[in-house]
Amino acid sequence: MAGRSDSKTVREILCDALAGASAGKSSLRFLDSFRGAIAATFVCPLDVIKTRLQVHGLPEMPPSS
């Protein structure tokens, strides 16, 4: 392509990264850290609940009348 430089726009970099193509390392690092923060937000509280259930077990419920 004549007249086009090798630099990509932000949109092209994000599309390539989301598609699994190789993009610049700095953009992938940013996306990886963003995905890690999102995952930790949901996984960490669930992991705490799981650990407490493993240590203490389920609470005993009084018999229903």
What does this structure look like?
It is a multi-pass membrane protein. It is found in: Membrane. This is ADP,ATP carrier protein. Keywords: Membrane, Transmembrane. The chain has 65 residues and is mostly helical. The protein has a domain of 33 residues. Helices cover 65% and strands 0% of the residues. The longest helix has 32 residues. The radius of gyration is 23 Å and the shape is rod-shaped. 0% of the residues are buried.
**What is the β-strand count?**
0
Nearest-integer average pLDDT: 78
Helical content class = 55-70%
User: End-to-end span in angstroms?
Assistant: 80 Å
Structural class: mainly alpha
The radius of gyration is 23 Å
The major sheet is characterized as:
none
Poorly predicted sequence stretches spanning 5 or more consecutive residues: none
Helices and strands, in order, run as: HH
What percentage of amino acids are in beta strands? under 5%
Shape: rod-shaped
Determine the number of helices (DSSP H or I, runs of at least 4 residues).
2
Fill in the keyword field for this structure.
membrane, 65% helix, MCP_dom_sf, 2 helices, 65 residues, transmembrane, MCP_transmembrane, 0% strand, mainly alpha
How would you summarize what this structure contains?
With 65 residues, this protein is an all-alpha fold. It is 65% helix and 0% strand.
Fold blueprint:
Elements: H1 10-19, H2 25-56
